[in-house]
Amino acid sequence: MTRVLIFREPDAFGVMEVDAPAMQIVEAINRGQWDDYLPEAKGPLYARQQGDVVVVTHGAPLSEVELPKLSRREHQVLVLLGEGLTTAQIALRLGLRPRTIRGYVANMKARLRAQNIQQLIARAVALGLFHPEL
Prior knowledge:
This protein is of the alpha+beta class. The chain has helices at residues 22-30, 72-82, 87-94, 98-111, 117-126, and strands at 2-9, 12-18, 45-50, 53-58. It folds into 2 domains: 2-64, no CATH class; 72-126, Arc Repressor Mutant, subunit A, CATH 1.10.10. Helix content is 39%, strand content 20%. A 4-stranded mixed beta sheet has the order 2-1-4-3, sandwiched between helices. The chain starts with a strand and ends in an 8-residue tail after the last helix. The model has no long low-confidence stretch (mean pLDDT 83).
């Protein structure tokens, strides 16, 4: 089984399990033949394998999307958010003030056009900025 993360709209995504190898799903979707795997989806769709997960988006292929740049510290914060830590816990771990962590989070949310932390993490995964441990 392969986990597929589908971004239906910029602010909405779903996760499903597909009984096929990840590479086979990616190749079929990128050829325009996604009906076997995502029968309810409307195209055009583009897919990319991200670790054990297949990320599917509408619009431009992920390789053509201009990726936002994250600083080393922002990336550290993103990874810790992805592990489920709060801003206070991240501040303790990194030896920074919670206010500083909230600033990093706000900057990343603005850059990735995310409304909340869950959306921030989902978009970062879809863009390949973050590789969650599944």
